[in-house]
């Protein structure tokens, strides 16, 4: 692998962004998460907030019809934003030495050698972590029930997005190199694992290393 | 964690046994794979081959009935053998510093701190690896079609076994700490990853490491 490209997909609240951030700090890689939204705003002229609203979201319906009353404008816009994000992801990968978070990047870069990571944790821990972060950051408080709904809704949104644009099931192991349960490992050991994998040069593949 | 206990479950042909063996070599741990069969033979008095035949296999039916003609003797024997294997696994874990392969050990040791690994690879690579091993070892040749059937059948057997004795789906990420695609990593980098995870002391958990 000439250029190091790491994609990190993640369940909501599992600390995937934080794993990506620390991995970048440790290895001097560039982080692309919401940075992709800013780049898409620059390129399309849409407002950042509008792109964020459509970011990592499947089009609401993709069968336009004058009879159904479906908002085909929304669908077309959503597709246009995703297309731009996918172009950006491929351009980022050409530069290399980067970590790309979410946005089906593992699939978009299917033909480009890269390391594909999935970060997950049990639902109950992700709810607790998000509630703890609210307390730390002093943002609007939520009940545990409200947070459970939010976490599930965001997972569902990411799943629908991933499965709309790829052939794979979100979070099913076949799509990934390594999957890490941060509830067991914590954030730093997750970074240790990815670092060991990279430094082992990804090893040989299964068929040349028996 | 006082004692180091690693469980490794694996898809058939993914090199899980080889990962376990090299991990044991590298860290001076004891390997328990078919060793468990030998121990169960000693303890139950059944022949090794008979235990191997029932090993990692769900009972064929668990509803005995004089009307159905179901072989309840086979069912009872299978359960007895599994029970003995589970007792052995818990005894092994008490000693610690070991790697236990398969046999739903991650679930059997649910209340004992341990590291739970799942090794997988795409079907096509596992078929090729098993065919290559036949060539290397000079055992009876098989066609690709025959090997595909065998690999799928063994996976199915392991899945049924795992799901009969546990509450989890076999290979679904929720049950594991780390899952590794050996088709991407190779065997040695898989060992690197597990070593990094162990030496990081497993890190803190998600909620104390934000």
List the helices and strands and how they pair.
The structure is a homodimer of 210-residue chains.
Chain A: E1 5-10, H1 16-27, E2 30-32, H2 35-44, H3 48-54, H4 72-95, E3 98-101, H5 105-108, E4 115-120, H6 123-137, H7 144-165, E5 178-181, H8 182-199
Parallel strand pairs in A: 1-3, 1-4, 2-3, 4-5
The N- and C-terminal alpha carbons of chain A lie at a distance of 21 Å
Task: Return the average pLDDT of chain A rounded to an integer.
Answer: 89
Output the helix-strand order of chain A.
EHEHHHEHEHHEH
Helix-residue proportion of chain A: 40-55%
Secondary-structure-based class of chain A equals alpha/beta
Biggest interface reads: A-B, 51 and 51 residues
Strand content of chain A: 5-15%
Largest sheet of chain A: 5 strands, parallel
Rg over alpha carbons of chain A: 18 Å
Number of helices of chain A: 8
Assembly state: homodimer
Please tally the β strands of chain A and state the result: 5
Shape of chain A: globular
């Amino acid at each position: 692998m000439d250029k190091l490209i790491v994609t990190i997909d993640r369940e909501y609240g599992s600390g995937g962004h934080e794993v990506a951030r620390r991995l970048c700090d440790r290895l001097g890689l560039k982080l692309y998460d919401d940075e992709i939204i800013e780049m898409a705003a620059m390129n399309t002229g849409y407002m950042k907030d509008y792109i964020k609203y459509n970011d990592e979201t499947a089009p609401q319906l993709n069968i336009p019809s004058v009879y159904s009353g479906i908002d085909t404008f929304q669908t077309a816009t959503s597709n246009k934003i995703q297309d731009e994000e996918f172009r950006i992801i491929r351009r980022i990968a050409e530069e290399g030495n980067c970590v790309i978070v979410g946005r089906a990047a593992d699939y978009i870069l299917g033909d480009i050698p890269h390391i594909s990571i999935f970060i997950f944790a049990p639902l109950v821990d992700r709810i607790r972590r998000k509630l703890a972060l609210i307390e730390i950051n002093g943002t609007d408080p939520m009940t545990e029930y409200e947070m459970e709904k939010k976490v599930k809704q965001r997972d569902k949104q990411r799943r629908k997005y991933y499965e709309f644009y790829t052939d794979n099931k979100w979070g099913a192991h076949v799509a990934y190199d390594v999957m890490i349960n941060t509830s067991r490992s914590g954030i730093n050991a997750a970074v240790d694992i990815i670092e060991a994998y990279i430094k082992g040069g990804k090893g040989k593949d299964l068929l040349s290393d028996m």
